[in-house]
Amino acid sequence: MAKKIALFPTHPERICWGCDKYCAADALRCGNGSGRTPHPIEVLGDDWLEQGDWGFDPEEVARAKVRAGKNPG
């Protein structure tokens, strides 16, 4: 089973989000010398969950927004 992705990471730039290993950005283990995969929040912004269907449970998203200090509405 894959690890759950952090919905609102504090420092997404520090991690490669390309697989479930979540390597440090400066110590990639699974790549072939390629760069790290950015978190969707880095590409799409804070409202990334509202763009498309990511398949997350709406209650889980609401709880994550509260924990991250985002508007749960």
Automatic annotation (TrEMBL):
Q: Look up the domain of life of the source.
A: Bacteria
Task: Name any one Pfam family assigned in the record.
Answer: DUF3079
Name of the featured protein: DUF3079 domain-containing protein
State the organism of origin: Dyella telluris
